[in-house]
Amino acid sequence: MSRGARNPRGSVWQRWDPHVHTPGTAFNDQYKGTDPWDSFLSAVETSSPTISAIGVTDYFSIDNYLRVVTAKESGRIPKVALVFPNVEMRLGYATSRSNALNIHLLFSPEDSDHPTKIRRFLSELTFSFLGVEYRCEESELIKLGRAHDASINDDASALRNGANQFKVDFNDLRARWQKNDWVRNNCLVAVAGGETDGTSGLRDATGSWDATRKGIEAFAQIVFSATPQQRDFWLGDGVESVASLNKTWGGVKPCLHGSDAHAADRVGRPAKERLCWIKGDLTFETLRQVCMEPRDRVWLGAEPGRGALAGQTIQSITLTSAPWVTPGAIPLNAGLIAVIGARGSGKTALADLIATGAYAFTGPLSEKSFIYRARELLGDGHVCLTWEQGDETQNELRHAELSDLLDSPRVQYLSQEFVNELCSSEGLGDQLVGEIKRVIFNAHALTDRMGTSSFDELLDLRSQVAREKRLRHELTLAQTSRELTEERLLKASLPALTKQRNEKAKFIEKDKRDRKALAGSGQEERTKKHEEISIAVDAKRQEVQRLKRRVMALTSIKEDVREFRENNVKNWLADLRLTRSDAGLQDEDWSNFNVAFEGDVDGLLDRRRLQAVADLLKNEGTAEGEPTSFTDAAVSVLPTGASLATQTLSLLELELSRLAKLIGIDSQNAKRYAELSAKITKEETALGRLDDQIKRAETAGARIDTLRARRSDAYGGVFAAVGELEDELKSLYAPLEARLASAVGQLAKLSFSVKRAVDTKSWATRGEALLDLRKAGPFKGQGALEKTARAVLQRAWESGASEDVAEAMTAFLAANEKGIREHKPENLSASDWARDVAQWLHSTEHIKVSYSLQYDQLDIESLSQGTRGIVLLLLYLALDLEDDRPLIIDQPEENLDPKSIFDELVARFRDTKTRRQILIVTHNANLVVNTDADQVIVAKCGPHLKGELPTITYFSGGLENAEIQAEVCDILEGGADAFRERAKRLRLTI
Question: Among 11, 261, 454, 559, which one is least packed by beta carbons within 10 Å?
Fold first, then answer.
């Protein structure tokens, strides 16, 4: 007999062979050689992988089991920590293969008197032959063998024959098992599941054995079978559900498998390498735990499946120069580790110590953390984490907060304060949003991240086109609104412009009459000529001014072209190369992007400017040989019969001064004449501009229609870009949406929403600032504008397509433009006010795209603190599948109700521990027992002495260990109930 010791690492995978026959087995003994027992023991000792627990099997007997125990006590099979008896019996039913149905009784070896009690129980089982009742014990089996075959002479042969004939009555076995307290508490019943000698063979065409078969299977707690189909069936993954198994078969059951060796070369070598791996201490209690956790505690295969990757599994934590912690080195399980203890016992201290060694404190330490509170007493304490791959991470305890210099913590640490903050209403800010973004980003395959390292980077990259499109449309909106306002003001000013033009023309005519009067009377012919020349001078001066402006404009265009080529194009190309660097274009490729004008703009501008300069010189009259004065006032300086329009300005002005002198204009009048001429020229220039404005005002209607259409298109274009951004966000959420689509339970209530956040109030407030709300009208008083906007625009802003939004704004303007004008403040100019109103009406700053995590169709901001805690843990446990770092959670139940923990989170913790290491500090029994924690670390704290840290002791093991079970029951409220409820829920009488 042998018992395995408590493993401080908790429940780890060990190789078991629960079904091995030894030399001298009653049937089919194939062990050969001079010392078959040595061959058997040597086969066990050399088996690879090492067999750590063995179920010694024989028919109706434990004698060979006791012989193996004796061999172990003498030093053989030293690596086998547990040896237990497996009594194989045959029931009185034949399978379709004409073999008796086999059933196994696996007994615990923990009771020192267990051999006597096992034999006593077996002896209660009887078999009748020819009216004689035989008990299941060696002497009686020998008698049965001889009674059946009188030719048998030796006891060994008679024993084998008697065992072969002895068939156990199933109903009798079940009744005696149920009545015997010791057997019920120390024996597990296993039934063969195959067709040859198992319940699968108990079938016929009429189904007459169905009730019998189900009765036997319901009684058994274990099925001996290695086929995947049987495993799936008994876990509820096959044709029957878990509910159906609970109703008809007494619940789910583990499938175990042994080598069933009857010869030395088969010991520890089951067919198809279907080795039996069981997770837990090497004790019989582990088998009981397997019955409670058949899915997670047993595996059949060449090697057990592993959970967390070796590179992401902390193997141990070691503390040096920290005498206040014992032991100095604590091994850690690769699965779910539960840290329990009384309040103030050092539970959070262990979480903080591991976080320190893994560089998880990425900011200032919380004042509530152990490291912060104990900082003055930590001294030279040092923590070292050893990872399963052999690497180490180390940190000084007093420098825990310096780890923010590192790029990435090796663990994900959800401290109690962090969880509380995220679950509180104050925590619904950047931190929670940041966590949601991180999970969404991690859900994307590495190749889909396009080289980015965060959600925001990926969103910026993927939404760049939509954002730039929106910006272009917003710029177009602003520009078009300005132009439209100017055109409307111009059109509205047509009557005033016409009146102004007529008035100005009258004043020019008056000035011309005054100028004419300065010439005096009696010189009608010369005065008339003087008037003609004056008009020609005025026209020529305007022409010269026009040509000067043209020369200046052409010179400016020349400079604009140079600036465009040398700076704008270069800057644009440099910016393009920077922002589109991922295009992978080479230097020779980018040279193709140099911008060139279609035509010869330089030659064109040079020619046009030279022509303009020449025309200016020609009209100014600075050509060589042209007279600059006259000697005889009676002789005209103009060529005879020459057209005045073709004469230069200098020559016309000279002729004008000659005629002025000839008709006798004195110096004072000459000065006044010159002033009037300059004034007339200026006014006629202004008159020409008025004529241009009037012409534009008369044609403004068509331009207004064009600008309206352009503005409507740009306004709709903004929302089309918003829609593209929404689509991009939805595509970013797609990987998580796919997971949620197939989710069950509370997880199925989670969803991600992408919607427009419309701040109608801010839009209306900006508009009200431009209106006089005191005036009578549709928008009198604060809030009226917002009410109208919500009625007409809100729905389109929130969910409308681009054309819907454009139509809604057109309808709003048609119905309210006049009303808005009624509220124009008196102290503002019409043009400035109209410009501001136009910019406000089509502004879109109040439209943003928002995204949110929702639970049961409510944004997380609207949830209660407890529900928010559930969502937060679902986020980390069920959705954050890409983060495989160890996860440390400190007392999450503080924000949760017990029912939610049991109904939802237990299953999530069980799923998550199969892919990442979890350490949870908890007071909740459900999070320890029903999650089937792989390791329980019990924290206990010594007395607090002034100026010293109290001694913290950590004691650890698996849930199958009796000491650990006792601690769970003592420390955790409802701990004992949790154990009982788990067994009850699984319909087990364990």
Answer: 559
Tokens of 615: 């025309």
Amino acid at 509: E
Q: DSSP characters for 504-541?
A: HHHHHHHHHHHHHHTT-SS-HHHHHHHHHHHHHHHHHH
* Strand ranges across the sheet with 952-957: 325-326, 952-957, 935-941, 336-341, 918-921, 887-890, 412-414
- CA of 142: how far to CAs of 147, 162, 667, 755, in Å? 9, 6, 163, 84
Contact 897, 876 (CB under 8 A): no
Residue 987: which region, alpha, beta or left (left: phi > 0; alpha: psi -120 to 50)?
A: left
C-alpha Rg value of the chain to the nearest Å: 49
8 A C-beta contact, residue 558 and residue 533? no
DSSP state of 366: P
Q: What is the pLDDT of residues 512-530, one digit of tens each?
A: 888 777 765 555 566 677 7
Confidence band, pLDDT 50/70/90 cuts, at residue 323: very high
The pTM score is 0.75
Segment (H or E) for 906: helix 906-912
Q: List the structure tokens of 393.
A: 């991470």
Pairing relationship of beta strands 276-279 and 13-21 according to DSSP bridges: antiparallel
Give the whole-angstrom CA distance, residue 399 versus residue 382. Answer: 10
Report the C-alpha gap between 212 and 218 in whole angstroms.
Answer: 10
Identify the CA nearest to 660 among candidates 531, 540, 509.
Answer: 531
Among 98, 754, 4, smallest CA distance to 440 is for 754
Q: Which H or E run includes 600?
A: none
Question: Is 50 exceeded by the pLDDT of residue 635?
Answer: yes
Cis, bond preceding 950 (omega within 30 deg of 0): no
Instruction: Look up residue 635 and give its amino acid.
Output: V
* Strand partners of residue 330: 317
How long is the chain?
A: 990
63-121 per-position pLDDT tens digit: 999 999 999 999 999 999 999 999 999 999 988 888 999 999 999 999 999 999 999 99
Domains and CATH numbers, the chain: 13-125+168-300 (3.20.20.140), 127-167 (no CATH), 310-417+884-985 (3.40.50.300), 461-469+702-850 (no CATH), 519-664 (no CATH)
Averaged pLDDT for residues 184-210: 92
